[in-house]
Design brief:
Radius of gyration of chain B: 24 Å
Strand order of the largest sheet of chain B: 1-2
Number of helices of chain B: 14
Number of domains of chain B: 3
Order of helices and strands of chain A: HHHHHHHHHHHH
Largest interface: A-B, 131 and 150 residues
Number of strands of chain B: 2
Distance between the termini of chain B: 48 Å
Largest sheet of chain B: 2 strands, antiparallel
Helix content of chain B: over 70%
Helix content of chain A: over 70%
Oligomer: heterodimer
Number of domains of chain A: 2
Radius of gyration of chain A: 22 Å
Strand content of chain B: under 5%
Chain lengths: 247, 322
């Protein structure tokens, strides 16, 4: 029972908004020691965990090229391009991206999208560009909302697309777990098939919410006078957010 | 054969080069702490190869990880001001280059796709060209390198230091968030070896009422949802909840179709992933990368969808599994 204190530490830490790295570090050490690991074993657990999970950090390799392109006007051009499509509102554009992300993930192409590869350099400038065209300069609250929904469309599309693909990790985990633990035989294809209904609902539900976002944005603009607290570009927004964190 | 470890060395080397740049960047008030943090991260990437191969002990790496946690957690890292182009210059360059600027950006996904679909099947003799099981990671890595070359040609940039500086500026802006997903994955494995999962399984099987199959469906799905939120990962929650309820109660006792029960149980877990800061690479990292003031912005955007889909999953499982 006592090892659950480590879980409690994580919940309390996140709830009180401590630095997440510290929360995780402290909880890891505490849980390991409460779970009867020696200090040496705790250190080894941290080392082994770091080594085997390097894959989640590999997106950093794309940052130099994205940085180079942003320096040369990638986001500005993305805004210009989207301005040519008159009927493409923010919500409709994000629905389009959601659908593309689901379909490509469903055929196994999970690394086509992602926050570093597509959301920051392309999706956000286009979604913001569409809103700017119909409403003018964006208030900061609206900009945050559009960026949050761009990240959300990427996640929802990925999660509820990839499970329809039978060679993906989660399907193999399901069949592998059952086949070794219970000595049964479950076909990956059969499991993947049952992911399709939820994938359809995910598109309908999240798509409807994205279309409603257009109305929310229009209302925000009606409430806040255009240009109030406008932040011109992503780079400056990143800077101010980072400064905020340093305080 | 192209090994995935080579790419981890490359990523490690990039972090080390950026750490060296930070060390001499006098515009960063905390340049020593920053350089130490990113330098340790880069060295850790390279040293990890020996840990994975079990030729070196994991303990020194564990010490390095905890030092990184302290450096970032107690505020010893900061950021400098990397000289870059102004907004006016960017608009001017964009109007000159036009849509050619998209070519390098689209190179990353196209190369990743080609690697995952075609190069995956290539062999030299009997050896596959790309290490088996790592094709997507390698595809992303190859895509990034090809895109960098294409990008430098398109924007006519000759100095390799320029993209490295720009990338470093993005790294500094993201700060500790970059390390969080890896650390959370580590925490998950510590939870596992410490028996946290077993305890949760014991508790859930105690509170579960007997013989009420639809209550058990709700408990299984809600359990996947909540446990995924705590662990930040549906894969970690799945074995626990399935061993506790999914298999013994829903499949064996209730006679449910295992494919339906397990597929939807996992998807209920994914709903939890959308709602938790513990799934840092999906929720906290994008917030940092997009410069959001509210680090929970993406989670808030996803919450209603996650809640609705949890109900949908419970409904589909109830309707079709039995």
């Amino acid at each position: 029972m006592i090892v659950l204190l480590g879980v409690l530490l994580v919940i309390v830490g996140f709830a009180t908004r401590r630095n997440p790295l510290l929360v995780v570090g402290v909880s890891g050490v505490a849980t390991g020691l409460l779970g009867d690991l020696s200090p040496r074993e705790v250190l080894a657990a941290f080392g082994n965990g770091f080594a085997s999970s390097r894959g989640v950090t590999i997106f950093a390799i794309t940052l130099p090229v994205i940085g180079l392109l942003e320096r040369n006007g990638l986001q500005e051009q993305a805004r210009t391009l989207i301005a040519r499509f008159g009927k493409l509102t923010t919500g409709r554009f994000l629905v389009l991206y959601l659908g593309l992300r689901q379909i490509t993930a469903a055929v196994g192409l999970v690394s086509l999208g992602g926050p570093a590869q597509t959301v920051r350099p392309l999706v956000v400038p286009m979604a913001e560009g569409a809103a700017e065209r119909s409403h003018g300069p964006l208030p900061e609250k609206t900009r945050e909302k559009i960026r949050s929904h761009s990240a959300g469309a990427d996640n929802v599309g990925l999660f509820f697309g990839e499970d329809c693909f039978l060679a993906v990790g989660s399907i193999l985990l399901i069949t592998g777990f059952v086949n070794t633990t219970y000595h049964q035989h479950i076909e990956p294809l059969h499991v993947a098939l049952w992911a399709i209904p939820t994938a359809v609902f995910a598109f309908l539900i999240h798509g409807a919410r994205l279309l409603r976002l257009d109305r929310t944005l229009a209302r925000d603009f009606a409430a806040a006078p255009a240009g109030a607290g406008a932040v011109p570009a992503m780079a400056s927004a990143v800077d101010s957010a980072a400064e905020e964190k340093l305080k | 054969m192209i090994k995935v470890e080579w790419f981890f060395w490359l990523v490690g080397a990039v972090f080390l080069v950026m750490a060296a740049q930070m060390l001499v960047d006098r515009s960063n008030p905390k340049r020593f702490g920053s350089a130490a943090f990113w330098g340790l991260l880069g060295a850790g990437f390279i040293y990890s190869t020996r840990v994975v191969e079990k030729t070196s002990p994991a303990e020194p790496l564990g010490v390095a990880v905890l030092v990184m946690v302290c450096l970032a957690g107690f505020g010893f890292t900061g950021k400098g001001t990397v000289p870059t182009t102004s907004r006016e210059q960017r608009v001017a360059i964009a109007s000159r280059l036009g849509s050619r600027i998209f070519i390098p950006a689209l190179t990353i996904p196209v190369v990743a796709m080609v690697c995952a679909v075609f190069v995956k099947k290539w062999h030299i003799g009997t050896e596959p060209v790309l290490q088996k099981g790592s094709e997507t990671i390698l595809g992303l890595g190859v895509g990034a390198i090809v895109a960098l070359v294409v990008g430098m040609l398109v924007v006519r940039e000759k100095r390799i230091s320029v993209p490295v500086h720009e990338g470093r500026s993005m790294l500094e802006a993201m700060g500790w968030a970059l390390l969080l997903p890896q650390l959370l994955a580590t925490l998950g494995s510590i939870f596992q070896v410490s028996g946290v999962g077993k305890q949760v399984g014991v508790i859930t099987s105690k509170v579960l009422p007997d013989g009420k199959i639809y209550v058990a469906v709700i408990v299984y799905c809600l359990g996947m949802f909540l446990f995924t939120m705590i662990m930040g990962n549906a894969f970690a929650a799945f074995p626990v909840m399935t061993a506790a309820i999914g298999w013994p109660v829903l499949v064996v006792e209730g006679g449910g179709d295992p494919a339906v029960v397990l597929a939807l149980g996992m998807l209920a877990g994914f709903c939890g992933t959308l709602c938790t800061p513990m799934a840092a690479n999906f929720n906290i990292v994008p917030a940092a990368l997009l410069g959001l003031k509210d680090q929970y912005g993406p989670i808030k955007a996803q919450l209603p969808t996650a809640g609705a889909l949890l109900v949908v999953n419970i409904g589909i499982m109830s309707a079709f599994a039995f």
